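Researcher: Let's do a round of design. I'm pasting the structure tokens now; please hold your answer until I've finished.
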């Protein structure tokens, strides 16, 4: 099957209110244009350099999502256009995003990445760190940043129960934070979890933004 057929198949499995981010990392511009031609507008990349290059070359109405680990000193390369930064994992990074948002006269939407997987290798904040950032009040000084929700990655495993459990953890954290009603919580509405192998479980467990690469574009060699 080709990219348009793959996209149609994935979209058919998603409820209307779930945003599909097509993860185009390592894929050529031609693949992105093919997806674009069948109506896809949200694309995700995990490297700043690739994101900036593709944004410059491809249609201006694409919404670009930064889904990878982001270093503070690289925020400047994407601050003028990025639609959503998924992987925020420190207050220091939020400060850098604020600073670049201010220079570009825009408010930059971000998700806090929460560490839910059992693996120790995946980036992300602990539950306490997330609460610390959202509830401390330090955030109110950063008026060029808007925290739109949480992002997470489940353990890479065939154990579907474990994956479901991890998504539930994230959902519980999200609901608890939303209920506490911190400053800015009106805009706190995105739950970004679920990839090619586990997006069905993610949606069942409340995700409203899935990041899907290989099911749309085929497997990646790198
Ligand atoms: C690569 C990647 C994805 C997509 O992975 P697939 O398994 O190809 O769907 C989603 N999220 C992040 C953060 C990624 O790096």
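Researcher: That's everything. Go ahead.
Model: Designed sequence:
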């Amino acid at each position: 099957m080709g990219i348009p057929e793959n996209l149609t198949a994935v979209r058919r499995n998603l409820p209307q209110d779930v945003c599909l981010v097509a993860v185009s990392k390592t894929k050529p511009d031609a693949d992105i244009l093919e997806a674009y031609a069948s109506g896809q507008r949200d694309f995700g990349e995990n490297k700043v350099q690739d994101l900036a290059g593709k944004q410059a070359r491809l249609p201006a109405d694409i919404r670009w999502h930064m889904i990878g680990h982001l270093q503070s000193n690289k925020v400047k390369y994407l601050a003028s256009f990025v639609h959503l930064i998924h992987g925020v994992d420190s207050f220091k990074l939020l400060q850098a995003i604020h600073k670049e948002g201010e220079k570009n006269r825009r408010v930059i939407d971000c998700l806090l990445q929460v560490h839910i997987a059992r693996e120790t290798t995946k980036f992300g904040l602990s539950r306490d760190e997330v609460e610390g950032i959202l509830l401390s009040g330090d955030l109110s000084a950063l008026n060029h940043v808007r925290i739109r929700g949480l992002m997470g990655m489940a353990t890479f495993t065939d154990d579907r129960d474990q994956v479901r459990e991890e998504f539930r953890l994230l959902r519980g954290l999200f609901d608890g934070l939303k209920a506490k009603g911190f400053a800015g919580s009106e805009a706190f509405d995105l739950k970004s979890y679920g990839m090619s192998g586990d997006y069905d479980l993610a949606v069942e467990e409340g995700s409203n933004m899935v990041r899907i690469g290989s099911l749309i574009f085929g497997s990646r060699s790198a």
